[in-house]
Amino acid sequence: MEIDLEKLPFDLDFHPSTNIVAAGLITGNLLLYRYDAEATPQRLLEVNAHTESCRALRFVNEGRAIVTGSPDCSILATDVETGAAIARLDNSHGAAVNRIVNLTESTIASGDDDGCIKLCAIFGGYAVLVVTYTCKLCKTRGTAIKGCISVVWDTRQRTCCNTLHVHEEYISDMTFASDSMKLIGTSGDGTLSVCNLRSNKVQTRSEFSEDELLSVVIMKNGRKVVCGTQSGTLLLYSWGFFKDCSVLMISDRFVDLSPNSVDAMLKLDEERLIAGSENGIISLVGILPNRIIQPIAEHSEYPVEGLAFSHDKKFLGSISHDQTLKLWDLDELLQGSENSMPNHSAASDSDSDGMDVDASIPKPSKGTKRKNVSMGSKLDNSTNFFADM
């Protein structure tokens, strides 16, 4: 099943309970479609959400609203049924908003091009409040400097945490470990960070990689963090079930997807992930033992920009530079995968990380995979996002 978006898409997300899929476009528009296996997808809404591209989006509040982010530095919440703007925070970040991820039904995290991550609490169905706290490191208030992760935890009592220096380049991806309340972020500076949302602190940061880290998933019941990179190498990090640890260490490298960058990944189960590559190929990959189980789809000859599962996991959605959103029957894609033979890169599934790691720490890369769209205005001290609702 294929949807012609007519313009370049940057992100996609599926409604959490019904057959609706959303895409954010380079034009700043937000598109919503209803899909069915036996019918042509039907466009439900087209919203002119942002003055610049719509880079990031996620459904929130049980699918009643959708939150989008843009290089114009704004975050917008849109009513899914009517397409009406619920409210907009015009200066949510000091740089282009590049990534949004769900934490709970009432909380999201957003990451920008300057390495800043913010956590926003959503109240009463639609009310979102963002509070900026004084940074103990840079001694500023109301602004986020380059290289800071601004972790803003706004509870019903409007408490919040500090601003801590972590990343030096754009936030490429984030994922959330709900059982341990850890937010994992990857960056173009070649590092992986872990924010402890219980203590509102950055808990640890990985060693520098020679590659930009572009995508991230948690595997093996929290024992492994897998990162896709610009070179196509998958880096496996070990970090003790996300308990206290001084540093994330690279425990393994899987190079069989090289030289094509791995821009998007989805966790299928604890043993397998789905990777979208720069050459347009979507692959099923086994982790420990590490192997390409099989290529399962080819979106196009262009890079796969995003992947997502439908609410019932019957469909895999993919977007690419060919301006299409494709919906793949997941059962059909996975047929025959169990019979695929492992290759010579296979390694045993063990918690023993005795493999060599880099002795030297290379300089961080320059963030060449960043979506090059102009950034908006500087961050304002806003505390009333969605206050009217």
Automatic annotation (TrEMBL):
Q: Which SUPFAM superfamilies match?
A: WD40 repeat-like
Any Pfam family the entry gives: WD40
Region annotated Disordered sits at 338-389
The record, for InterPro entries, names: WD40/YVTN_repeat-like_dom_sf, WD40_repeat_CS, WD40_repeat_dom_sf, WD40_rpt, WDR55/POC1
The UniProt keywords, alphabetically, are: Repeat, WD repeat
User: What's the superkingdom here?
Assistant: Eukaryota
Repeat positions for WD:
297-331
Q: Where is the composition biased (Polar residues)?
A: 379-389
PANTHER family reported for this sequence: WD REPEAT-CONTAINING PROTEIN 55
The family classification in the record reads:
Belongs to the WD repeat WDR55 family.
Could you identify this protein by its name? WD repeat-containing protein 55
Q: Which organism is it from?
A: Salvia splendens (Scarlet sage)
